[in-house]
């Protein structure tokens, strides 16, 4: 299967605007002709889609050339390592999970959001827990909060691209004795 380098620009638009890349089959109205060398380099990468997603979830405004710099490669390898053993990493991140992690108070962010902001848990963990527990619905009171608004936007944009084994992660959460709706 060939890789269309325009995928990068479609995903970049997906993560930075209202454009929904999967809905439009990762196609843009016009082709982006700049950065031809970088596009060709991306097409030759063993996992170009993974490289793009791994970097865009960290910095949605990244330039295509930055994918091949040291930071871009480190982001990709960390993302790949995490996804290759997702159930293990997920279970480690929620090792001491408690219902209080989801509680919303007027004067501070929920503990789960603080863990994410402090890089103790990954965006994938936030998405999985929301898919299972629907905690984001109760966090609507935070919609005025810029930090939660940006995190929620990123969760929604990444959710349609993130694949995982629902049965495995559901069992992990059940083992932690959290109530799943």
If you had to describe this structure to a student in words, what would you say it looks like?
There is one protein chain. The chain is mainly α. The protein has two domains: 6-84, no CATH class; 86-175, no CATH class. It contains ten helices and no strands. The protein has helices at 6-16, 36-44, 48-56, 70-84, 86-93, 111-117, 123-133, 135-138, 146-159, 166-175. The longest helix has 15 residues, at 70-84.
Whole-number mean pLDDT: 90
Number of strands: 0
What structural class do the secondary elements suggest? Answer: mainly alpha
The main pleated sheet reads as: none
The rounded distance between the terminal residues' Cα atoms is 39 Å
**How many domains make up the 3D coordinates?**
2
Radius of gyration: 18 Å
Question: DSSP strand (E) fraction?
Answer: under 5%
Shape: globular
User: Order of helices and strands, N to C?
Assistant: HHHHHHHHHH
* Total helical elements: 10
Task: Point out poorly predicted stretches.
Answer: none
Helix content bin = 40-55%
Brief synopsis:
54% of the residues lie in helices and 0% in strands. It is mainly alpha-helical and 181 residues long. Helix 1 runs parallel beside helix 3, helix 3 crosses helix 4 and helix 7 packs across helix 9.
Write a concise keyword list for the protein shown above.
181 residues; mainly alpha; 2 domains
């Amino acid at each position: 299967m060939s890789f269309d380098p325009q995928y990068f620009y479609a995903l970049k638009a997906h993560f930075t605007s209202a454009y929904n890349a999967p809905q439009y089959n990762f196609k843009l109205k016009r082709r982006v002709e700049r950065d031809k060398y970088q596009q060709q380099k991306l097409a030759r990468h063993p996992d170009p889609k993974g490289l793009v997603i791994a970097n865009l979830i960290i910095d949605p405004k990244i330039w295509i050339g930055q994918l091949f710099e040291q930071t871009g490669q480190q982001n990709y390898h960390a993302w790949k390592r995490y996804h290759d053993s997702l159930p293990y990493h997920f279970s480690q991140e929620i090792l001491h999970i408690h219902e209080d992690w989801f509680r919303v108070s007027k004067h501070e962010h929920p503990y789960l959001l603080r863990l994410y902001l402090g890089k103790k848990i990954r965006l994938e963990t936030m998405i999985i827990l929301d898919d299972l527990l629907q905690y984001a619905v109760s966090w609507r009171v935070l919609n005025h909060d810029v930090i939660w608004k940006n995190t929620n936007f990123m969760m929604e944009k990444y959710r349609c691209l993130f694949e995982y084994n629902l049965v495995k992660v559901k069992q992990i959460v059940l083992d932690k004795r959290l109530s799943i709706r």
